[in-house]
Amino acid sequence: MFLDLSHTKLNVYQLSQELAMECYKITRTFPVDEKFAMVQQIRRAALSVHLNIAEGCSRKSKAERKRFFEIARGSVIEIDSAIGIAHKLTYATLEQLKPLGDAIINNFKVLTGIIAKNE
């Protein structure tokens, strides 16, 4: 936030921030008894995506960058899986999940492309 580093202008960084915001928005509507379970897990994974992208961008070697991007992509998959369970439990409708679903797909695609470039 205070460091004006080049990675903050990258599309992948901005997309991951959007993903985190969507995760926080949708989990606000989940039942109170999920506050310390599913809600925390989804939010932690969303923050992990964003933070691993930031840290990966700061690494000098391709191998290190790739590893952080792989971890970020794994967290995207984790969010998708948890949201699938939330939907089956009727915590949110597909219509309500659409913005988050779009963010999940966009992040997955971009991270997959970046990982391929860092091979």
TrEMBL record:
Pfam families hit by this protein: 23S_rRNA_IVP
InterPro entries: 23S_rRNA-intervening_sequence, 23S_rRNA_IVS_sf
Protein name: Four helix bundle protein
Species assigned in the record: Niastella koreensis
